[in-house]
Amino acid sequence: MSEPGPFSPRGKTYDLEKTLRRVVRKYVPERRLVSSRPAIGWSKRPTIKLMGKWIETSPGEQNVIIINRLLDDERVPAYYLEYNVYHELLHDLFSIHRSQGRWIRHSAEFQAREKTCPVYARAREWEINELQSLTMAENAIR
């Protein structure tokens, strides 16, 4: 079996395309996200800070979600990956805007909606308690 390439949705542990479909079905009632589904794939390299990124493209082009390759690991629970994909999808509903000279990426409305995700509390708890050990292991490899 060949190695997944950069920006492939298929990883060693998780398939992001399947995760995206599951997240949309379970957590996102807005149908427009289903019909204008973004491209999704793993980052080229793992990083220790940013777990995901939403890239908004020009009108008519497919938006992009990049998930940190660090999360393609059997130690990462599926619900944590789902939470990260959900978080990135919310950027389609709550656009980045300027307020008082600053870019607002996570508005109060965004944060309130994020907390409605059924796995939010569990995912944040895992992030606080376990993610650091994963990033430390990645740092040790470098």
Please sum up the structure shown.
The chain has 142 residues and is α+β, with helices and mostly antiparallel strands. Helices cover 44% and strands 13% of the residues.
How would you sum up this structure, described in words?
- With 142 residues, this protein is α+β, with helices and mostly antiparallel strands.
- The protein is 44% helix and 13% strand.
- The longest helix has 22 residues, at 120-141.
- It is globular, with a radius of gyration of 15 Å.
List keywords for this structure.
single chain; 142 residues; alpha+beta; Zincin-like; two-stranded antiparallel ribbon; globular
Our Rg estimate from Cα atoms comes to: 15 Å
Number of strands: 5
Biggest sheet statistics: 3 strands, mixed
Helical residue percent band? 40-55%
SS-based structural class?
alpha+beta
**SSE order in H/E notation?**
HHEEEHEEHH
- What is the 3D shape? globular
The name CATH uses for the topology is Zincin-like
So how many helices?
5
Strand content: 5-15%
- Catalogue the unreliable spans: none
What CATH architecture would you give? 2-Layer Sandwich
Q: Indicate the CATH class.
A: Alpha Beta
Query: What is the distance, rounded to the nearest whole angstrom, between the alpha carbons of the first and last residues?
Result: 26 Å
- Average pLDDT, rounded to a whole number, is 86
Q: What is the count of structural domains?
A: 1
Strand order in the sheet with the most strands: 1-3-2
List the SSEs and their pairings:
Blueprint: H1 16-27, H2 31-35, E1 39-42, E2 52-55, E3 64-67, H3 78-93, E4 97-99, E5 102-104, H4 108-114, H5 120-141
Parallel strand pairs: 1-3
Antiparallel strand pairs: 2-3, 4-5
Helix pairs in contact: 1-3, 3-5
